[in-house]
């Protein structure tokens, strides 16, 4: 009986000792984290990064996701990309980090963006954010879904940033130009990715990539240049016949492609804005007298309602009245 009591006492003593050590370890960890944060605020990035590392070491190489992220920021700003990517990959590959937009626009990581490992990291974080039902996982091509979701985020993220810069600083501002160049860069990267998809799969069926993935492909094409449009026009026509591109999207694609070739648009979907005055105009339309009939056949709202979002008043007389101004802006006659 005494032996059992003695054994129980030892077990309790060991448990208390472990518990005390755990509390002590957490205190040390917290102190390092607080010190690292203070060093970071003082822009002592190397010292901050080293303190984050000591915090993780004191906690058996374990760390809170937010602390790993901040450690990565410290290493990146200290000019040590390997350590920065290591910390980011620790939380990404474990499936814990999902905030793709924050990661992409975080200025601390500018130095990492031309590193091939950054692209791989982005793909992992992107995959972490995709939540599919078990039945969807069987039916969808998960790799394509992840890729197209990344493409869609980039398309909208940088396009929205450009619009905000224009609204805040004006069309011809340095800020708007910088955002425009960034948007065009990502448009080009997206077009390369979609071209690879086309070359491998053709236009993937909606059953493989989902409705969002299908629309993403259309968005990239709609923002592409004439050469890409003409190269894959047969795929666009085939997708339209299969019902993967709806009539309103086809009208947008057709009008923009015609204008790029120096032709007039058919459905009146394209508007141009004078960067000096901010006034918007309809780009030249073929047979404008019957444009509403063509629009109706494609399920589009009447011109008067459609162009009101640009503060344009629609009538045949007003259209012809503005035509000389539009031709000066577009060089289409």
Blueprint (SSEs and pairs):
Layout: H1 2-41, H2 45-58, H3 65-77, H4 81-93, H5 100-105, H6 116-128, H7 134-139, H8 142-169, H9 174-201, H10 206-222, H11 226-231, H12 233-241, H13 247-260, E1 271-273, E2 280-282, H14 291-297, H15 303-307, H16 316-330
Helix pairs in contact: 1-2, 1-3, 2-3, 3-4, 4-6, 6-8, 8-9, 8-10
Main attributes of the structure:
single chain; 333 residues; mainly alpha; two-stranded antiparallel sheet; 16 helices; disordered N terminus
Describe the structure.
With 333 residues, this protein is mainly α. 70% of the residues lie in helices and 2% in strands. It contains 16 helices and two strands. It is elongated.
Please state roughly what percent of the residues sit in beta strands, choosing from under 5%, 5-15%, 15-25%, 25-35%, 35-45% or over 45%: under 5%
Q: Could you tell me how far the N terminus lies from the C terminus, measured between alpha carbons in angstroms?
A: 106 Å
**Helix-strand sequence:** HHHHHHHHHHHHHEEHHH
Biggest sheet: strand arrangement: 1-2
Low-confidence stretches: 1-5, 7-24, 132-139
Overall pLDDT level: 84
C-alpha geometry: elongated
Largest sheet: 2 strands, antiparallel
Number of helices: 16
Estimated radius of gyration? 28 Å
Structural class: mainly alpha
What level of helicity do the residues show? over 70%
Tally of DSSP β-strands: 2
